[in-house]
Fold:
Amino acid sequence: MPHTSADVAVIGAGVAGLASALALADAGLDVVLLADARAGEASPAAGGILDTNHGFALDSTRALMRTARDLWPSFAATVGERTGVLVPLNRDGVLELAPSMHDAERMRGTAGDDVTWLDATDLTALEPQLSHALGALHFRHDGALNPLVLLKALKHAVGKHIHVRVVSQTVTAIAPGRPDEAVTISLHDTPTLTSTTISAMRVVVAAGAWSGALSGVPMHLPIAPVRGQLMSVASKALRHVVMLGKGYAIPRGDGRTIIGSTEEHTGFDATHTAEGVQQIRALAAAILPSLGTAGMLSTWAGLRPMTRDGLPIIGQDAEFPSVLYACGHGKNGILLAPLTGLLITSLITGASAPTDPTPFSPLRF
Ligand SMILES: Cc1cc2nc3c(=O)[nH]c(=O)nc-3n(C[C@H](O)[C@H](O)[C@H](O)COP(=O)(O)OP(=O)(O)OC[C@H]3O[C@@H](n4cnc5c(N)ncnc54)[C@H](O)[C@@H]3O)c2cc1C
Structure:
């Protein structure tokens, strides 16, 4: 049974694991990235909206999300320079349509520094196809990216990094020891039916919706899979990301628009369904009727790793400091990827971080 070691083992190669591995390796640590591929991975399924406003009750949380968003231009540029894979950022802002006149009045009152209220005339000037709408808030600095392009760039950057070794196997268990002892990680390689162990001074649990199911993880991780179905349709109607209730439309700028999404508690079932397609079409039609009937190009589903408060778990285990968590990113894992990498690295190396990680602490549960 071969036994190798590393400074840090990162479990999971979604955006949380990849961004963490990259930041740790950039800090000079010897990283091993352990990941299998499985149905329902959230990162390739995501829409890719950089949305700093929805689902966050507190101003302080929205400020944190804006910090995360503002890391994106330099993060995307750096990854692009290293790999030649450009990750285009749509920074045209996100439009949130007013569902009713009553909501329009309320929403108008919430406009602020980087949020503009657009009445029907202003909105039509910006997005001519939305002439039927009552008005919208324009979150001017939000936007979107294509997660598939992002994953390609991140995998390339991590794969060629001199401080990273990628092991494409399933982690079957972790066994953390005392603070100064290495963590032993058991692996299984499905094609060859062989088992191995690896040891690392730290382990970062970044296994998305499956994080809580990893054997040996010291704390109970309150993360539930929430299935989201999305569709790609042939439409060039919109230029901006547009949201209305649970519905959204994300123009990719190449003749495709992504529409979504469902929120379903179906365990680890990651299949997409006829009911899901119907639901998505209805949500999209409420934004723009032609989107509801646009030609479907493809449809898919992924599992959001949701915590109870919608915030990720980024921090050190209370009892076993060699175990760190970078999971539970829910609906915002793309937005939070660069910040996650920096926070995990600062927790391990003591380097300064762009923000205080306390709101994401595992100790809050
Ligand atoms: C439909 C949908 C739409 C979304 N839209 C957006 C959006 O617009 N904006 C946004 O910011 N976020 C969005 N999200 C959320 C975002 O996709 C997630 O928060 C993020 O991708 C989570 O990344 P992750 O790396 O934690 O998990 P994942 O991407 O799921 O990756 C987990 C990885 O761990 C691996 N793994 C698990 N268990 C093991 C094991 N035992 N051994 C080895 N490997 C293991 C898996 O194979 C996988 O590679 C959306 C999600 C969905 C599903």
